[in-house]
Design goal:
The model has no long low-confidence stretch (mean pLDDT about 95). The longest helix has 26 residues. The chain is about 35% helix and about 20% strand. By secondary structure, it is an alpha/beta fold. Bound molecules: 5'-deoxyadenosine (5AD) and iron/sulfur cluster. 5'-deoxyadenosine binds next to β15.
């Protein structure tokens, strides 16, 4: 049997796309493998968001070239595919830099992988079209489903934040029709999925066509997915503050299946920098929105993204970011040094922040965020949470799952609990995950 190795970098949408590429190859008779050495097809699903992410691909490709040569010497063919956002952004340049690459395929055309692989036997192939046909209509059934699954509902972005490549790599905002989303969610539920994360680059801008053709917002989509039998939990990511409407705030108060966790990137706490980033909202507008969300769902866990060292960022601007972090008290967050990206407006600016300043700011911000995250995890000790059991744990006899607030928990329990939501008392907070004990009544069930 032919084998395929698919590796994904970057965001959850890339993880979703990678899973769907594995489905496409699976339908062609490829079995999935974790061992790149034995793979007949290797797919790297790449990320272009920061320079580091994009450059990682080329070092990986260098290793794959050697592997391809070794396999060839043993009479084995290896097809190397570069997919995802670097593929979209760089196209044929990738093959100019690394001739061992057989296929370059963008995020909107990977349903054509079998055909592209076949054509690549004649010559190298590049497909970074935004095709008129919808890839979702051409993808085979999903395989290898677990308890939790991603579901793409919206792609692309029209926001044009000054630092960001997404509008270029993922194109304009497109929402899938409600019926298509519900059909996919229904199949997921039938396949044993209990938790669905609705994903989009700008998911709360979702405006898919409903049954009557009228645009439907994310809040109504969440309610419709919650009504599907078997779906116990719904999450969504990633949102933009400006698309957060009252209906979505209300959904957090009213839809029990909508989990109390929100990833809402703010990027900076300085109004001057927010304006320069073209975020089109102020730090106080963000604070007010968070107040509303917390009023609707007081126990909501908040997460965000931050960029330090955006061009022109002063010590005073950075102090505003620290102030916002202290005011809000995020339960978790991601923070990055600004990375100039080709083709984005910010990359043209000459007032870049020195690397040493960026490093110092990142360390300070991460220190603050980590302290808060650790305090939050320690505060969980002693509490009981419903945990969706997703997989076996790191140690034999253990399983691993997530609380409603997306905290990872390991605890002793038989594997037949995988796919169930069970009550677990948190007993210990480790560095990256929590340990717990299944409540006795659940253990007996
Ligand atoms: N440099 C650094 N971080 C970036 N992000 C997006 N573009 C850049 C960039 N050019 C971060 C933002 C975004 C997250 C996915 O990545 O914080 O929310
Ligand atoms: Fe990376 Fe953005 Fe592409 Fe996701 S959409 S893989 S974050 S560049």
């Amino acid at each position: 049997m032919k084998k395929a190795y698919v590796k994904s970098y970057g965001c959850q949408m890339n993880a979703y796309d990678a899973a769907r590429m594995a489905d496409v190859l699976g339908a062609e008779g490829f079995s999935a493998t974790d061992s790149v050495e034995e793979a007949d097809v290797v797919v790297l699903n790449t990320c272009h968001i920061r320079e580091k992410a994009a450059e990682k691909v080329y070092s990986e490709l260098g290793r794959l070239r050697v592997l391809k040569g070794e396999r060839k010497a043993r009479g084995l063919d290896t097809r190397i595919v570069v997919a995802g956002c670097v593929a979209q952004a760089e196209g044929a340049e990738i093959q100019a830099r690394q001739p061992a690459v057989d296929v370059v395929v963008g995020p909107q055309s990977y349903h054509r992988l079998p055909e592209l692989l076949a054509r690549s036997r004649e010559r190298r192939v590049v497909d970074t079209e935004f095709p008129v046909e919808d890839k979702f209509d051409h993808l085979p059934a999903r395989r290898g489903l677990g308890a939790s699954a991603f579901l793409t509902v919206q792609e692309g972005c029209d926001k044009f934040c000054a630092f960001c490549v997404v509008p270029y790599t993922r194109g304009a905002e497109v929402s899938r029709p409600v019926a298509a989303v519900l059909a996919e969610a229904g199949k997921l539920a039938a396949g044993g999925v209990r938790e669905v994360t609705l994903i989009g680059q700008n998911v709360n801008a979702y405006h898919g066509a409903g049954a009557d053709g009228a645009a439907t917002g994310l809040a109504d989509l969440v309610r419709a997915v919650a009504a599907i039998p078997g779906i116990a939990r719904i999450r969504y990511t990633t949102s933009h503050p400006n698309d957060f409407d009252d209906a979505l705030v209300r959904a957090h108060a009213e839809v029990p299946a909508l989990m109390p966790y929100l990833h809402l990137p703010v990027q900076s706490g300085s109004d001057r920098i927010l304006a320069a980033m073209n975020r089109r909202h102020t730090a106080d507008a963000y604070r007010r929105l968070i107040d509303q969300v917390r009023a609707a769902r007081p126990d909501i866990a908040l997460s965000s993204d931050f960029i330090v060292g955006f061009p022109g960022e002063t010590d005073a601007d950075f102090a505003e970011t620290l102030r916002l972090v202290r005011d809000i008290g995020f339960e978790s967050a991601f923070s990055f040094k600004y990375s100039p990206r080709p083709g984005t407006p910010a990359a043209e600016r000459a007032d870049g922040v020195p690397e040493s300043v960026m490093s110092a700011r990142l360390a300070e911000l991460q220190g603050l965020l980590d302290a808060r995250r650790h305090a939050y995890q320690r505060a969980a000790v002693g509490q009981v949470f419903d945990v969706l059991v997703e997989k076996r744990g790191r140690h034999p006899g253990q399983v691993a799952g997530k609380t409603p607030h997306l905290l990872a928990v390991q605890f002793d329990a038989p594997a037949h609990h995988i796919g169930q939501v069970v009550p677990v008392r948190i007993t210990e907070a480790g560095a990256n995950s929590l340990f717990g004990a299944l409540l006795p009544e659940a253990a007996a069930a």
